[in-house]
Amino acid sequence: LAIAALASPVSQQTISPVWGAVTVSVNHAQAITATVLLGYVWRAYYGIHTWSILPYLALVAFWMPAIQQYLFQYSSKLGPVAGPVLLGFASCHTIIIGCGYAAAQAIEVLDLQAQLGNVAGVALPAVLLDFGYFRPLEYVLARLGLPWVQSATDLLSPTRLQPLMAVALTALSPEKPWWLFSLGAPALLHMLLANPHFDGPYNMAVVNRDLAPTKWTLLDRTWSNTGYISVLEDQNLNYRVLRCDHSLLGGEWQLTTERRSSGWLVNEPIYAVFQMLEAVRLVETEKKTADSAAQALVVGLGIGTAPKSLMAHGIYTTTVELDPAVYGFAKQYFGMPSDAASGQVVLADAIFWADAAVGSGDGKYDYILHDVFTGGAEPLSLFTDGFLGHLRALLTREGVIAINYAGDLAMPLTARVLNTIDQVFDGQCKAFRDAAPSSSMNPTSAGGFVNVVVFCRNSPGEVKFRQPSRKDFLGSKSRETYLLPKAEWEVQFPLRTNGSMTVDVSRHEVLKKGDERLWTAQVEESAIRHWRVMRNVLPAKVWEL
What stretches pass through the bilayer (predicted)? Predict the structure, then answer.
């Protein structure tokens, strides 16, 4: 059962790059609970043979990477609902059922059915093993053990743990039919030499061979505490992206000779939202701090577009990022400066960091940028009134915050998040989408998966922007177009009435700590919609590798 507990998060990690962490987790906890019981009951009532199932289970485990590779190529046809179900059953539940079966077989020597009765002798140990051992161990491995280990070393990546689990099943088997295990040797050779998903010394070349028809190239990749992180480049259009599982953390159009000749001076971001966030500097307040004396806090690094620009303006910038791999790739492939006089990067959980920062009373920021979308969904814990209240406490009196939220404007969850932001900042906010609505929509209507940037003042007053100067653009043509939020792209707060807040309703329509589970269904729906959006951004083959 310990191997089953490990197989659960490893399976989810290996299929998340193709379908996203949220979609593969739908009903996963309930399913693994049921499959352990199924395997146990299967053996207790219907297992009449004396030979061990473990050698056959080990053989399946050896071939699991190859099975996944084969099924991944049908990800677009399977979609974000059937795909995770099929792959979850193939790569996770088959192993867990077999382990539950083997556990029941192993304790038959205790003859519990004879001592406790035919029903209690099966039900009692099954429930105790499932809820008292398997589920707690699986929780610890999934939430704490694996993320911590994988952020510290590449040696125990999910794709490397798969063959290790097969070896462990082989070692635990009381019977060792070596002719059966020898059938696993070709699977190991295939994994080491021909499987693009294994992170061995030869497999990067396999990935780029398979990507060649799409004109994409994999530059680097690793597994870390937030998932599968990789850097890819489109050789046709000359732009580079940073990927986390089935989402993009950002990207840049590269400064080619042709683009330089047409007037480009710098790499340009592929998403306008990152430059819209920089408009916090443009919000007019009663007392403006000079850039050279200002301090900024950025929650969520991505490729570093926003913190790089703030540092370029001379603002000392502290960036809080959870994933060390994201920071490493941002430095290596996207020009993010290392810790220096212009700023620092703190590798920490933003919730705990903000709580400690407020408690210590150290540091006040003139600007805060909040941009934490990853893995196909927004982490709702970073949009509760408690966390946002901590961020407000870290602002100077004349400080300004910009918050990016990605979601569907037609969904109640989006309305709840926007209202939470508005309530925390006393209605001193304005929100803007990052692109024009479709022609079928009113400019301020709901509908469609978009990025919404909310600007809020800490002090009373309306959010107004000064006109940017050439210095604000930092030589970027894209900033000339997108830095200043467009009035026609403004989004009305759903729970305001005639521009003012509805006191009785909106005060209670906020996201509080502990409410995250109440919105699980909408987070899952949003992740499914985002999956479909991403399949139109990059070719399916890129996501499948």
Answer: 18-41, 53-72, 84-104, 116-134
Distance of alpha carbon 274 from alpha carbon 249, whole angstroms:
10
3-class secondary-structure state, position 518: helix
Residue 503 lies in a domain: yes
What's the pLDDT tens digit per position in 260-299? 999 999 999 998 888 999 999 999 999 889 999 999 999 9
Instruction: Report residue 264: phi and psi, to 5°.
Output: -70, 145
Is the Cβ–Cβ distance between 218 and 243 less than 8 Å? no
Q: Are residues 172 and 283 in the same domain?
A: no
pTM of the model: 0.90
User: Count of domains in the chain?
Assistant: 2
Cα–Cα distance for residue pair 80/93, rounded to 1 Å: 18
Residue 411 to residues 407, 414, 442, 450: CA-CA distances in angstroms? 8, 6, 17, 12
Same domain, 187 and 74: yes
Q: What is the 3-state secondary structure (H, E, C) of 163-174?
A: HHHHHHHHHHCC
In the prediction, which pLDDT does 438 show?
Answer: 67
pLDDT at 306: 93
Range of the domain at 61: 2-212
Task: Give the three-class secondary structure for 216.
Answer: strand
Helix, strand, or coil here: 183?
A: helix
Angle at which helix 185-193 crosses helix 158-172, to 10 degrees, equals: 170
Closest CA to 194 of 176, 206, 211: 206
What number of CA atoms fall less than 13 Å from residue 57's CA on the CB side?
Answer: 30
